[in-house]
Design brief:
This protein has helices at about 1-10, 25-35, 65-75, 85-90, 130-140, 175-180, 205-225, 235-245, 270-280; strands at about 15-20, 50, 55-60, 80, 95-100, 105-110, 125-130, 145-150, 165-170, 180-190, 195-200, 225-235, 250-255, 260-270, 285-290. The two termini are about 40 Å apart. A 6-stranded mixed beta sheet has the order 2-3-1-4-11-5. A 5-stranded mixed beta sheet has the order 8-7-9-6-10. Strands 13-14-12-15 form a 4-stranded antiparallel beta sheet. It folds into 3 domains: about 15-100 and about 195-220, Periplasmic binding protein-like II (D-Maltodextrin-Binding Protein, domain 2); about 105-190, D-Maltodextrin-Binding Protein, domain 2 (3-Layer(aba) Sandwich), CATH 3.40.190.10; about 225-290, Alpha-Beta Plaits (2-Layer Sandwich), CATH 3.30.70. Strand 2 and strand 3 form a beta hairpin. The protein contains 9 helices and 15 strands. The protein is α/β, with parallel strands linked by helices and about 300 residues long. The structure holds adenosine-5'-triphosphate and zinc ion. Adenosine-5'-triphosphate binds next to helix 4.
């Protein structure tokens, strides 16, 4: 009876409806991010609709192209989707947070042997793409006059079969372009997965979203940082400490061995290798590097 009341009468309206790509490059990482945020989902494998037992949230699995529209309409309150799709669809939604995965770029490529000097080399050319809106904006902004051919898949084969002179498609490593005899000449957009929200969330749903964003930020910060422990002779301590940024300042603890200390700190992934090298040169020993699970400021 209790279950019946809480599920159907009160709780339903206050669940945050989250849209995730059903199957594709963003699906697994989106689900993993929710899991890293401590949100357990039931029957994820079915990829239909599911919910969480430990957070008031429902998940809808959809095609990524449909997510901005569903979020604008309020069918979903928030969605995980690539920036490329958000800006192409141009729906009335708000980008809340960059998620740090699904990184790629939307680029123009031409045949390897073609002369290409600058963007005006595209004048009069036929460009095949699944991103007509973004390509048109890019061409207009640069006063280039080219013909856009919208095709929905396998864009990279268009020049080879004489359908177009150039393509504009998503690239990550560039190997697909290379295998199709194409070279990348312009980058239109750098993209990654983002969290978008409906523009008219009620305060209750906004509060749930705030909780999720707080957790996502802690997870992202943790991924970008490492916890480091090292041993240092006391006479080198001040030099070693000056190399470490730390969250506030490093923790320094005496070791059982006279004249030595253990130093603990947090380093960002970006500066990590540089600093490790300097620490070794300064006399640090027994350096341990540990991943951080959550990092809350
Ligand atoms: P759906 O069936 O949901 O429409 P899709 O085929 O359009 O799927 P995917 O290929 O799974 O989509 O890509 C989803 C998103 O992953 C892209 O919109 C983009 O944001 C991101 N992505 C990251 N790297 C790449 C890449 N190399 N090629 C294509 N998309 C990439
Ligand atoms: Zn798609």
């Amino acid at each position: 009876m209790n279950n019946f009341i809480s599920n159907s009468t009160f709780a339903t309206g206050s669940k945050l409806k989250v849209a995730i790509q059903k199957s594709g490059r963003l699906s697994e990482e989106s689900l993993k991010l929710l899991k890293d945020c401590g949100i357990d989902l039931r029957n994820v494998k079915d990829r239909l609709k599911t919910e969480s037992d430990n957070f008031p949230l429902e998940v809808f699995f959809l095609r990524d192209d449909d997510i901005p529209q569903y979020v604008e309409d309020g069918v979903a309150d928030v969605g995980f989707v690539g920036e490329n799709v958000v800006y192409e669809k141009n729906k009335k939604v708000t980008v809340v947070e960059k998620l740090g995965f699904g990184k790629c770029r939307l680029s123009v490529a031409v045949k390897k042997g073609d002369d290409y000097t600058d963007i005006f080399s595209l004048n009069g050319k036929r460009i095949a793409t699944s991103y007509p809106v973004l390509v048109k904006n890019f061409l207009d902004k640069n006063n280039v006059n080219a013909e856009i051919h919208e095709i929905s898949g396998s864009v990279e084969i268009a020049p080879g079969i004489g359908l177009a002179d150039a393509v504009c498609d998503l690239v990550s490593s560039g190997s697909t372009l290379f295998m199709n005899g194409l070279k990348e000449v312009e980058i239109i957009l750098q993209s990654q997965a983002v969290l978008i929200k409906n523009n008219h969330l009620n305060p209750e749903l906004q509060a749930l979203l705030n909780k999720i964003v707080f957790r996502i930020e802690s997870v992202k910060r943790a991924k970008n940082n490492k916890y480091i422990l090292l041993n240092a002779p006391n006479e080198k301590l001040s030099e070693i400490i000056s190399l470490l940024p730390g969250m506030k300042s490093p923790t320094v603890l005496p070791l059982a061995t006279e004249g030595w200390s253990s130093v603990h700190s947090v380093l960002s992934e970006k500066e990590f290798w540089d600093i490790i090298e300097q620490l070794k040169n300064a006399g640090a020993q027994g350096i341990l590097v540990v991943p951080i699970e959550k990092m809350i400021l």
